[in-house]
Amino acid sequence: MKVLSVLTKGETVASTMDAAVLAAASVPCMSLEVLEVVLEPALVAASPEEMDIKQLRALVEGSPAERRQEIVNAFHAWKDQQPPGTPEFTWRTITGAQSRSVIAERSADVALMVISHNNTIDAAHAYHFALFSMHRPVLLVPEGWRAGPRKTFAHIAVGLTDDAVTRRAVEAATPWLTAAQRISAICLTDEKNADVLKAIMHQAKIDAEFDIPPYSPQKIGVQLVHEADRLGADILIAGVYRHSKALQWLLGHTTRELVNTMDLPLFLAH
Questions:
Q1: pLDDT value of residue 50
Q2: Fold of 155-269
């Protein structure tokens, strides 16, 4: 099994690679692969309107060649700073359209995809296709986050908000949960549902500390992130609700609240 790190923006390479290294180091026998997707405009069919958007994008984000060079430079700068003992990894470059290239990575040995949360079109495409089309868990990394002294994801918070959602998230994250030194299960629900959620964790043989915060007027996603921060968690695991991609991205549902608020990596499972 492998962790696949998808690089989408030069400024977020360090945070993405830090998170990918920790994800791979946290689970025994987990390999790490780095994927650089090179956008080749000639391979992308586009209408005149789409071409106008691409030209506007080049003005804001730089040309495909410039974006690629920024990623490569940032990667080498990150690599030069890594201490001895950093997990080995392989680098692979794919030429094509970002979404199609990421979909092509759908293989049985991809246990987790690591992608940065940033304002580029490439990042948005990679995130949505990995989560909704590939049905692979995604570790979404906030821009500017760094691993610091961490060697693994030792303290994991799990957001328990709905039984079906929690089951999917816990199942996808089991390799990391079983390897963690501490697990904080955050229950934002009524007492009856809390018992159901506790049973899910016990059935998965996950030994967790259950945390039931007092009522807060904050939205669920915001409260989950703040509680994970208060507990000192390294990452937060959450399920993604079964809305369509358009509804989930455009409306103010829990996943969007999580993404907009996050200041630590989010392990998302659909």
A1: 52
A2: Rossmann fold (3.40.50)
